[in-house]
Amino acid sequence: MGDSEPRDIDERSEVRELLRGLKRELADFEELLADCSNMWGYDDAVYRFYHQSFKVYAVQESTLRIVARLKALAPDRELNAWFLQIVADGTGKIFTPDDNRRWLDTTRPILEAFFHARFFLEMAVKSGRELSAPPNCLPSGWAALLYLYGLR
């Protein structure tokens, strides 16, 4: 291949290290995704929202576990500011009876934070399973993950 031809692999060391770390810790990511995807970790959270149950607040723990795991993958990198804002808006919430009157305003950010965190966890698992090297022609899930770590 000549010097002017595009390369199929992203050679940036920080991107390659992200994928190496992901592959090294894939089993832990898969286990966390399974916990956040089963009936009690996913289905019940959405049900509790629609049932208007204070138990929807429990999903904040899963959100924070996911965020901690994602941060630990690349501790020297700041996660995407929009993602961190979504997480901040949807965690640290404590139920009060007044929340029932403002249910959507109060609890939608909790689920939104969980959904975004779970999405990035899912993309980490998918990328760790499917990618042998970081590609230049990016699948959307890997591209989103690179945005999370400020690498896109």
Question: What do these coordinates show?
Answer:
This protein has 152 residues and is an all-alpha fold. It has one domain (19-148). It has seven helices and no strands. It has helices spanning 13-24, 26-35, 39-50, 59-73, 81-89, 103-130, 140-148. Helix 1 (13-24) crosses helix 6 (103-130), helix 5 (81-89) crosses helix 6 (103-130) and helix 6 crosses helix 7 (140-148). The longest helix is centred in the last third of the chain and has 28 residues, at 103-130. The protein is elongated and about 55 Å long.
Question: What value does the Rg take, in angstroms?
Answer: 18 Å
Number of separate domains? 1
Quick one: how many beta strands?
0
Low-confidence stretches: 1-5
Q: Helix count, per DSSP?
A: 7
Q: Which structural class should the secondary elements be placed in?
A: mainly alpha
Task: Sketch the topology as an H/E string, one letter per element.
Answer: HHHHHHH
Describe the largest sheet: none
Shape: elongated
Q: Can you give the mean pLDDT?
A: 94
What percent of residues adopt helix (DSSP H or I)? 55-70%
* Termini separation: 25 Å
Strand fraction = under 5%
